[in-house]
Amino acid sequence: MVFSKLLIQWYLQHKRDLPWRNTQNPYHIWLSEIMLQQTRVAQGMPYFYAFTEAFPTVFDLANASEEQVLKLWQGLGYYSRARNLHKTAQIVAFEMNGRFPENYIDLLQLKGVGEYTAAAIASFSYNEAVPVVDGNVFRVLARYFDIDTDIASADAKKSFQKLASELMPKESPAMFNQAIMEFGALQCVPKNPDCSVCVMNQSCAALQKGKVNLLPVKSKKAKAKNRFFHYLVAEDDLRNTVVIRRSGKGIWHGLYEFPVIETETEENMEFIAAKVLSENPFGNNVVSISEMNSKTIIHKLTHQHLHIKFWKVKVNDLLQNGIDYDTLKTFPFPIVIYNFIDNDFSE
């Protein structure tokens, strides 16, 4: 097949030297694949090194506390990945004697491991002939073969998996999977790819038809919801403060934050002050309330835009369960709160 031959030739010349490509260790490959979900390689690389240094084996990761894992994950986002990573490590370590399943079907049974991740581990660690299909693969195949199927549709993944499987050289599935993902990441990029230097430019259907920037077809995402968070940063006579752990199934489950008031719209200091005085989250000893960031911080998540304000709440006497600045920084926080603590809290 012309496509597969050109693809692998390109890959051998242009592939990046990434640490998880120099091993067949399923633990390292699993770590990297979980980290690279929704994450660019450049952003994920330092986390991969940090995790493999802190937790050299799946047993080390399994024996860590959830807070240790979340703290090390801090800033990578999509924190359910970290919680699932930890739970899966415990299953592999304590129920499977540290051995990962050795085939695609059994890998799918692990928490947090979907079709793409299972295919990646199965092919990279065990050379099983099962195709990976991610955003890069959708884009490369849709353009090369001029496929206008909506990749957000229910049937898209199956049809693209079938095509990728037919294209895959059965003697080198790992290389093919790595190659097609790398080609999409480096050459056949989402916007304005340089087709003039592309090894596929003589046979790419989308290029011949002038449709490169029209493919792949993907239905529009739902509009992001706006939420308004007002964080109450208490400070007592010792400059100690209070944080709480988020629970429930919403964003940032298991991470820490300051006590928060969520509102439907932007609110001014009068509203927040009245709310604090009426609800008494720190007792009846509030001395003053002041704005800490005059400009609202907008923190964009996949389906939510968070509008964040921090408010200093000075209190008399000492806070119950108060913690100092050095202790505060040891807790796992959403990165937007950690950055505030790191840059503004100590001033």
UniProtKB/TrEMBL annotation:
GO terms for biological process: base-excision repair; mismatch repair. Binds 1 [4Fe-4S] cluster. SMART domains: ENDO3c (SM00478). Its EC number is 3.2.2.31. InterPro entries: A/G_AdeGlyc_MutY (IPR005760), DNA_glycosylase (IPR011257), HhH-GPD_domain (IPR003265), HhH_base_excis_C (IPR023170), HhH_motif (IPR000445), MIG/MutY (IPR044298), MutY_C (IPR029119), NUDIX_hydrolase-like_dom_sf (IPR015797). It catalyses: Hydrolyzes free adenine bases from 7,8-dihydro-8-oxoguanine:adenine mismatched double-stranded DNA, leaving an apurinic site. It comes from the Bacteria. Residues 35-186 form the HhH-GPD domain. Keywords: 4Fe-4S, DNA damage, DNA repair, Glycosidase, Hydrolase, Iron, Iron-sulfur, Metal-binding. Its cofactor is [4Fe-4S] cluster. One of its GO terms (molecular function) is metal ion binding. It holds the Pfam family NUDIX_4. Belongs to the Nth/MutY family. This is Adenine DNA glycosylase. It comes from Flavobacterium pallidum.
